[in-house]
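May I ask for a sample protein chain and its fold as tokens?
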Amino acid sequence: MQNQQQQHQQHQHPQMMHNGPPGGYYDGQRPPHLGLMMSPQVAAHQMPPMRMNAAIGPVAPNIRYVWADNLEQEFALLRDLVDTYNYVLVSTEFAGVMGRCMGAFRSTSDFHYQTVRVNADLMNLIQMGITLTDANGNRPNNNILWQFNFRYNLEEEMFASDAMDNLLKTGLNPLKHQADGIDPVGFASLLIDSGLVLMPNVHWITYHAGMDLGFLIALLTNDLLPMEQEAWTEWCHLYFPNVYDLKYLYSLIRPQSAQVTGKSSIEGLADELGIARLNHMYQVGNQCHLTSLCFMELKKQLPSIAKTNGVVWGFGEIQPLQAEAPGVAARGVVHYGRAGI
């Protein structure tokens, strides 16, 4: 048992590499349920009867804090909701930017990808916020969203000291993350089974999507990112068939005199759009709340967002190549990965 646990290491270890996602297959249908059941007691306590809310305004969200001990029951809840609320708004938290790329690059897009790759290989996610809405911005009852807290050991992880200082000021508790944080491999397995990824009717929305997608692909494949952007693009299209980048959407409507890079954060975008922010909006759960508000405002101001699907700021359009994606056979995604997943 101890040997199996030692094999469940995170993607940061270069000597442990594979070419496939952790488990399961995909044949165009919803991934089979892995047996996560919500007890009647849990369902009664956690899931009031569903009703459609009015579009969300600047009101305090109901954040559900997820640790290792309640991870499965929260994913069971997400799985029940995603059929109705199939817009996934996400924010990730990692400890700054550790790697800066230098040298000659084939393109600006290649430079951006190599920067993402280096940092996703060096670091791991600390937190991830998720909220669900329908196409009109309605959320599940009680305006809920989720903040996932990953296992994280300051003595073992790499981080930018200034970024970590800022996280500590917002209330990050390293000792709790070390003791009670979520195992990334277990999270990836549940995410694949949840119906939130791989599905053509699910839409992912984030701000400055390149870095988020980099860390998410590293998490889902439990591996270092591929050297070439094209291979990473295939993974993105496989797991996230529909992606909208708020930074790109805003670039389509901003005044000509404005610089989209001037406030490179979801908080800055909210300010530009005139969206009121609540106090303590710098935690990742609240950031994905802002993401949902900004997305609905941008949808109002743009005649259509259909053509922006898959366009990531700094990367251009993420579309699959003609060849099959890595690890995809006739029946779908094949697991070539580590033992025990």
Remarks:
- The chain has twelve helices and ten strands.
- The domain at 53-319 is CATH 3.30.420.10 (Nucleotidyltransferase; domain 5).
- The chain has a mean pLDDT of 75.
- Residues 281 and 287 are 6 Å apart (CA to CA).
